[in-house]
Please model this.
Amino acid sequence: MTAASPNFKELPISERIQLVEDIWDSIAEETQGQFQLSPQERLELHRRLADHRANPASSIPWTQVRTSLFDGNS
Model:
């Protein structure tokens, strides 16, 4: 972090999470198509998808997770 950068630790947690999300999205946009999954990673993703399809009630919707994070609830 440079001297001209704001001190991110002074931001509320919800704003820091949003900042990280925005940075991650910008990286994803700039590197789209540049990364390939390994065969092991691809297998793991397929395994997780199969697990989800077999038991969809075991997952939590992203909107609920995000709300919980930004509201500070557990």
Remarks:
- The mean pLDDT is 86.
- Residues 2 and 8 are 12 Å apart (CA to CA).
